[in-house]
Write a sequence for this structure.
């Protein structure tokens, strides 16, 4: 399971011109589910991301978590994080989990953020062509990878 975490001041997500999700200050998490990923991978990433101290405190130090600042998290399923670019110019996606299983783990991850860590979590539409406008803050971008097999 791979995640790209970006600190934002505002993000909107639309499908076919319709607003689906919107957050203010918080995090956008692009989540890629890899073949063979298990719930323990989602458990690990949800715990780390929820507690990650990447927001500035009163002294300008990255010392606060998204929960500390009362922020939100927008989680976007992103199978292209599993792109294989070693051969040729067209990425391969054989490492991406099949859609049914990927969606199960995506939904599980979102439920952890909300129900275990108490952070407002919003979602994209799994498998849809989403248009995302985000205002990166910093910018701060963190890459994470967790695989339990």
């Amino acid at each position: 399971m791979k995640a790209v975490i970006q600190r934002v001041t505002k993000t909107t997500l639309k499908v076919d011109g319709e607003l689906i999700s919107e957050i203010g200050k918080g995090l956008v998490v692009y989540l890629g589910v890899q073949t063979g990923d298990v719930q323990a991978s989602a458990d690990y990433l949800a715990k780390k991301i929820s507690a990650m101290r990447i927001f500035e405190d009163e002294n300008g130090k990255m010392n606060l978590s998204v929960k500390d600042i009362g922020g939100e998290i927008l989680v976007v399923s992103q199978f292209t994080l599993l792109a294989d670019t070693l051969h040729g110019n067209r990425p391969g996606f054989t490492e991406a989990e099949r859609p049914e299983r990927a969606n199960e783990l995506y939904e599980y991850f979102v439920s952890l953020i909300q129900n275990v860590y108490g952070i407002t979590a919003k979602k994209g539409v799994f498998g849809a062509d989403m248009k995302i406008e985000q205002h990166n803050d910093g910018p701060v971008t963190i890459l994470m990878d967790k695989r339990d097999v």
In short: Residues 99-116 form the longest helix (18 residues). The chain has a mean pLDDT of 96. The beta strands are 2-15, 18-23, 26-32, 55-56, 62-64, 72-77, 121-123, 130-145. The first strand starts at residue 2 and ends at 15.
